[in-house]
Design goal:
This protein is an alpha/beta fold. The protein has three domains: 8-68 and 177-250, HypD, alpha/beta domain 1 (Rossmann fold), CATH 3.40.50; 74-176 and 260-305, HypD, alpha/beta domain 2 (Rossmann fold, 3-Layer(aba) Sandwich), CATH 3.40.50; 320-356, no CATH class. It has helices spanning 10-31, 42-50, 53-56, 76-86, 109-114, 125-134, 151-163, 178-186, 200-206, 212-218, 229-244, 264-273, 304-307, 323-327, 359-365; strands at residues 35-41, 61-68, 91-95, 119-121, 139-146, 169-175, 195-198, 222-224, 250-252, 274-276, 279-282, 286-289, 293-295. Helix 1 (10-31) packs parallel to helix 11 and helix 7 (151-163) packs across helix 12 (264-273). The longest helix has 22 residues, at 10-31. The protein starts with 9 loop residues before the first helix and ends in a 5-residue tail after the last helix.
Length: 370
């Protein structure tokens, strides 16, 4: 298939749904339970609701929404640290637009900017580097976040800054990695998953090989998926087919974009600039071993965490917010006590309602209030 409309063909979708119904019924009769499949990526969650996929699936399948939204998994303490950095003398803090409205303990970045802090939205880390070139009397900090999808651009920006001798640019890294998070989910006894629809954008960078640990150690099938309706339906069918045949393998539905070995140039840049942290806090999932990335010692002169002494405190979520349970897949957004009432996109209490990839934002936008 060549054109996007072909990936939205209702006739082909109908055929896939029939096959999904047949497979899921057979699996349900064998196992006497609902099949639970997690779509890891927030982009998949939004596609599922945009195209009404969940509504047309049989009741024998339950889609669980995963933690694949980088803004959503950023804990309050790290956001407070970012605001602390913005409040330091002669500092310009830069970050992506989604991050601006994430609530911290007392303020969001947008509210901090309204109070006078120099906080600017950028579209890429190179935009932040450009600001540093234009403001040599200021320390320009890029608040970096995202999975492996966005890490290469950050790494290449650091390499460019080093090459050009830029000394007033630094990075506050909140980059996270996907495989340790999946392992943490599978180690959670409260969440019983049967398989995964794997993230497409992350896999474009890392490839499919890193997921082998999920199949080999946890015996769960993973199908890396694209984002169009037929992509997602085919991926669900592929997961079910593995379960029906009692297989646990890594399959690549999104092979028009994702290569098994990943993007070697991007991976090389990541490896050159970053290394895994021993531990990193995720909202809802807590401390995850090797769950985040930090700059290597060779690039410590660009590390905001070494240039500044941060509060670095763990801060509990708002007592009414249940983003943590939603990110773990334990609750659906509409089960949160404040969903759609006290917590809306205009006045978010939790991160899942802020981000364009958040599950709560998807439910709210597409009218899934129950």
């Amino acid at each position: 298939m060549k054109y996007v409309d072909e990936f939205r063909d209702p006739v082909k979708a109908s055929g896939l749904i029939q096959q999904i119904e047949q497979l899921s019924t057979r699996i349900s009769e064998k196992r006497q339970k609902v099949t639970k499949i997690m779509e890891v990526c927030g982009g998949h969650t939004h596609s599922i609701f945009r195209y009404g996929i969940e509504a047309i699936l049989p009741e024998t399948i339950e889609l669980i929404h995963g933690p694949g939204c980088p803004v959503c998994v950023m804990p309050r303490g790290r956001l407070d640290d970012a605001i602390f950095l913005a409040q330091q003398p002669n500092v310009i803090l830069t970050t992506f637009g989604d991050t601006m409205r994430v609530p911290g303990s007392h303020l969001s970045l947008l509210q901090a900017r309204a109070k006078g802090d120099d906080i600017r939205m950028v579209y890429s880390p190179r935009d932040a580097l450009k600001i540093a070139r234009e403001n040599l009397d200021k320390e320009v900090i890029f608040l970096a976040l995202g999975f492996e999808t966005t890490v290469p651009s950050t790494a290449l920006t650091i390499l460019e800054a080093q090459r050009d001798g830029i000394t007033n640019f630094s990075l506050f890294s909140n980059h996270v990695v996907i495989i340790p998070a999946l392992k943490a989910l599978l180690d959670n006894p409260d969440l019983q998953l049967d398989g995964f629809v794997g993230p497409g954008h992350v896999s474009m960078v890392i490839g499919t090989e890193p997921y082998q640990v999920i199949a080999q150690e946890y015996h769960k099938p993973v199908v890396v998926s694209g984002f169009e309706p037929l992509d997602i339906l085919q991926s669900i069918w592929m997961v079910l087919k593995q379960l029906d045949e009692q297989r646990c393998e890594i399959e690549n539905q999104y092979d028009r974009v994702v290569q098994n070995q990943g993007n070697r140039v991007a991976l090389s840049a990541i490896k050159q600039v970053f290394e895994l942290r021993d531990q990193f806090e995720w909202r809802g999932l807590g401390e995850i071993a090797q769950g985040g990335l930090k700059l290597r010692d060779e690039y410590s002169n660009f590390d905001a965490e070494k240039k500044f002494i941060l509060p670095n405190q763990r801060v509990k979520d708002h007592k009414a917010c249940q983003c943590g349970e939603i990110l773990k897949g334990v609750l659906k957004p509409w089960e949160c006590k404040v969903f759609g009432t006290a917590c809306t996109p205009e006045h978010p209490i939790g991160t899942c309602m802020v981000s364009s990839e958040g599950a709560c934002a998807a439910y709210y936008k597409y009218g899934r209030h129950r």
